[in-house]
Amino acid sequence: MRGEAVRFNIHSQPEFFKEVVKRVNHHFKSHNRSKHANAQMVIKTIFMLCLYFIPLAFIVFNVVTSVWGNIGMWALMGLGMSGIGLSVMHDANHGAYSGNRKVNHLVGLVINFVGGYHVNWKIQHNVLHHSFTNIQGLDDDISKNGALRLSPDQEKKPSYKYQVFYAPFLYSILSLYWFLGKDIEQTIKYSKENLVQEQGITVRRAAIEIFFTKLGYLGLFIVLPIAFSTVAWWQTLLGFLLMHAICGQLLALIFQCAHVLEETDFFVPSETGSMENSWAVHQMKTTANFANGSKWFSWFVGGLNYQIEHHLFPHICHVHYKDIAGIVKSTAQEYNVPYNEHKTFAGALKSHFSILHKLGVGAI
Q1: φ, ψ dihedrals at 135, nearest 5°
Q2: What residue ranges do the domains of the chain occupy?
Q3: Distance CA 152, CA 162 (A)
Q4: Each residue of 23-55: pLDDT tens digit?
């Protein structure tokens, strides 16, 4: 398995994580609260699903027939699609939505309705990204197949010089690439590393599931609108691309602004595979929060602007991150551990594109 030889330093401030876990657990116990979804989360789930599927129904059943009305429906679906990715399936596939594994699995399958495949997502995100955040060669989130240079430890190439300008375009096709080719590439790569098999599924079954989920997605979001809507077929295709552009851009920027910033660190394991920090301290050095003062923004992005809390406690539903953020921050300050944060999303964006430029021109 990838990363099996990597060892975090268990002697690097182990008391920090023990204490922050103790305090967070006390918070939930003293308030008699579950760490999983509450009524607020259920309402959000219903809202995001409606934002995604109701506009599709309006298109298919010709409730909306004008050109701009049709475009508007696809734009809403783009927001719903990103909302599902950020606020619904993300928690479920982390096992944070419910204490019931079957509920988490069922809700997590909604990722297949936004063009992805739940098994590959769990491998890339849960197994690799959360375990080896910002570690070159292990974290697939900073390995973009040579399209972008997202780490100082990656090879410098002249082609990256203008990446700060073309990155937004690549971000906009993120979810489209996810639907068209990423899952196939990942299944081949992960099966060679035995990562698919470790999810309790055969490669053959994974391939069959990917084929039928992609086919179903194509039928639902391309074939049905073209077959039943009165708008021209090319308008449907443009709407489909717009939906993915909106979703891809939002997903990419939210996750990039959490890890690829001027303030966050990047690492390479030593020759013996050892890391200089403990896992928890490593997460604090490679992760950042942003716009924690905006309730609406935090609500829409599934609390992922509280990325520090998410990385330390991925099995806690995001609706609780605001309540435990103060605990995490004060404990980090007490133990002299970094707590990276930007007051605004704009500030995080500035930092992201600044380091993207520096990485592109080879300044770092």
Answers
A1: -100, 120
A2: 14-361
A3: 16
A4: 999 999 999 999 999 999 999 999 999 999 999
